[in-house]
Structures are given as C-alpha cells and as structure tokens.
Amino acid sequence: MRLQYLTVSNKSAITKILIMIEVTGVLPRGSVYLAGETVKCIVTIKNLSKVSQNNVDCLAWASVQINCQCSVSDTRINLPNTRKLSSEEISPSSSDTSFVPNRGEQGMTVLSTKPRILFCDLKLRPGESKSFAFEDVIPADAPPSYRGQAIKYSYKLIIGAQMLEHPTKLLRIPFRVLVLHGMNDVSVYMDTEEVQPSNPFLKQEQNENNLLDIAMQVLATITARKAPHFYNITNAKGKVAKFILFKQAYKLGEDIVGVFDFSEGTVPCVQFSVTLQSEEQIAEECRRKVGHGSSYTSYVKHQDMCLHTEKTHVNIPVPLSATPGFMTDIVCLRWRLHFEFVTSCDPIPELERPERPDMSAMWCGPANLNVETMIWDLPIKIYPTNPLHACSSTQLKTNASITL
C-alpha cells in the first residue's frame, strides 16, 4: 500500500494529512456466468481522507476489462506458435502508469476485452464517494474456467486506477465461466415474430436474462430423461450383469442413477465399484511426449458388495464445482463412468433355502476366493447448470477492494 501525504505548514507546527482513496468492486449477480452473458460490476470510489471539506482529492482515471489467463504444464504441453496477447498488445505503453491488466499474471492471455474507461479526473471531497456501473459481454466462444493437470483457464475482472503522479494499481475480482456449446447464435432459439404490436412511443423493455432463460431451456431438453439404456456386461466366461442407465446427459449437481441386475448372470460377481471420472486429453500437436496424451481425475466413487445380490442401484452426484465437457485447440475434456467388477474364477455354492418358512439357514463363504478384476468404461455427457445454482458451491468472493 502506498500512501500520499500532504504537508501543511504554519508558524506553530507542521501537520501531515493522510490521503487515501478506496476502490471497491462488487459483482451483484454472483461469481458464476455463462459464456455469452453480460457481466455487471459496480465500482465505488471513496475518499477516506479526514481533512477539511475545502480540500479536494483527484483521481486521474479508472478502467475495467475482462481477462482470461491460460497456464500450462511445461512438462506435459509443448505449445507451438500459439497466438497470445502480450502486455504491449493490450496496452501500448509498458510504464508503471499505464493500464496493463495482465501485469504479474502467469501464463498467456487468451482473452481480453476492450478496456472501458469509467472516468477521468474524478474529484472527491473527504468522505465523499461515487459509484460507476460496468457491463461487458463474455464472448460466446470463450473457453470455460478450468483447473486441470496440464492446463488452467482462469477469469478475472480487472479494475485499474491511478492517482496523479502515482503508479497504477490493479484490483482483480476472479469469477467462473461455464460454456454451453450451441449458444453462439441465440437468435436461432428466439421467436422472431412478434405476437403483440409494439408502441413506438414507449421504450421497449428487454429481458436481461433472455440468454440465461434460453440456455436453461436448451439444457432441460438435452438432459431430459428419454429412454433407459441397457448394457450387458460380459467377460470371456459369460455374463456378469445387466446395467440400466436412465439417461446419458447430466447437468452439474444432478445425480447419476443406475440399476444393476445380477439375476441373469452366469459369472458370480463379488464386488463392484463405479467412479465418475474426467478425461483430459491433450491435442496431438501440443503433447510434450507421446505418453502424455490423456490423464484422468476421479470425483465420486460408489463401491458395494454384491455376492448373491439380484438387483441393486448406484447414485453418484455430479459435483457443482466440476467443469463440463469442452474442447479447445490445446485440450479436450470428456467424462465417463469407470466400472470395476471383481468376479470369482470358481463357482460359488448357493445358499440352501430351508424347507419350511419357519426354519432358518446359515451360509458360510469360502475362506479363500480366486478372483479377477474386470474394467469397463462408459462415456457420458456433463453439461453446465444454472449459474445461480453453481454460485452456492464456489468459494470465489463477489467483492474486493484496494486502497490507492
């Protein structure tokens, strides 16, 4: 923090007056947005000085813009001649008094909106404050927020301000971006025919959440339950089980519900596990080594014993903090259900049922069991959810402040 002092001298004493200007940024809608939505920020400038009302402090300027930084693992990714935005391209001057939003950031800038100037030569009396509204649209083709093993995409709203004869200071507010593919042209989903006549003398009210409403309708259609999918799980010795999945497309925060049917199995299954995994696949031209093609991350795991079980089910929640599937020039993210079945190589004797209902029977399993593990992967689709719902799981703050 750098402070500015004014010196007032007279015959009796010399007094130093502290001057402080506080810049605060607030995201009123929350910290999660869909690509194509408008980000709104309220920027408040307040003079915290405690001096006479006759003194007026002046701010030279303040500007706001949206940046997306991309950081890659040098041991896994080898970027070719990738086009990136340098500090000189974003700001023509590299001095400490110019607005360079990616100053001090790691990686490369893959997205940078045009800077919006909030004000120039703002004068505030001690205790006085003034607020400014900033709005900008996240490009529909922007990459999503993502933190993987080989690459990271992070978004920040950057506010730059400068006092006279002082270096520029930056205020960064991180936020999350979700991407729903197919929303590049919203007009496809809009009704162009107007049902009611419009009055040319009245200002037509536009629905600010029109894109969000359309996106939620598209998501509801894509992830709706249509027909169950049946999968016969077999190995070289016969049938292990039948798996029923009610749909293959899910939103963040939904539960993946499936049913196992072992009643028709000819191979005894002792134990099974189902794990929700994401596959991060690096583009072939960006791989540092051939073996660095794909990496997997496990999120939720369901494990159960199933010997002598006819039917059982699994319920796997999709975390709200996860990143839906996407594809860029560098990486592709896909989702799958990873199954592991522990089957017995030898027949296991069944439980002998009692002759009468009032009689009981006890079954003792073998002390040693010769087993083998079978692996099966089932691809699924993970889509975004309502950004307002995703805000409940994020740890990003919606406000930040800095003192000039």
Secondary-structure map:
Layout: E1 4-9, E2 14-19, E3 21-26, E4 32-34, E5 38-47, E6 57-72, H1 87-90, E7 108-112, E8 116-124, E9 129-137, E10 146-147, E11 151-163, E12 169-178, H2 210-222, E13 229-235, E14 238-245, E15 249-251, E16 255-261, E17 269-282, E18 294-305, E19 311-317, E20 326-327, E21 331-344, E22 371-383, H3 387-390, E23 399-403
Parallel strand pairs: 4-12, 15-22
Antiparallel strand pairs: 1-2, 3-5, 3-23, 5-9, 6-7, 6-8, 6-11, 10-11, 11-12, 13-14, 14-16, 16-19, 17-18, 17-21, 20-21, 21-22
User: Which band does the percent of strand residues land in?
Assistant: over 45%
- The Cα radius of gyration reads 30 Å
Structural class: mainly beta
Instruction: Please state the second-level CATH architecture of the largest domain.
Output: Sandwich
Order of helices and strands: EEEEEEHEEEEEEHEEEEEEEEEEHE
Q: What is the percent of helical residues?
A: under 10%
Mean pLDDT score: 83
Q: What's the domain count? A: 2
- Report the sheet with the most strands, covering strand number, pairing sense and barrel closure: 7 strands, mixed
| Low-confidence runs | 1-16, 82-95, 190-196, 204-208
| Shape call | elongated
Number of helices: 3
Distance between the ends: 7 Å
Q: Briefly, what CATH class of the largest domain?
A: Mainly Beta
If you consult CATH, what is the topology of the largest domain?
Immunoglobulin-like
Count of individual beta strands: 23
Outline the structure in words:
This protein has helices at 87-90, 210-222, 387-390; strands at residues 4-9, 14-19, 21-26, 32-34, 38-47, 57-72, 108-112, 116-124, 129-137, 146-147, 151-163, 169-178, 229-235, 238-245, 249-251, 255-261, 269-282, 294-305, 311-317, 326-327, 331-344, 371-383, 399-403. It has 404 residues and is mostly beta strands. Strands 4, 6, 7, 8, 10, 11 and 12 form a 7-stranded mixed beta sheet that branches. Strands 15, 17, 18, 20, 21 and 22 form a 6-stranded mixed beta sheet that branches. A hairpin with a 4-residue loop joins strand 1 (4-9) and strand 2 (14-19). The chain is elongated and about 100 Å long. The model is unreliable at 1-16, 82-95, 190-196 and 204-208 (pLDDT under 50).
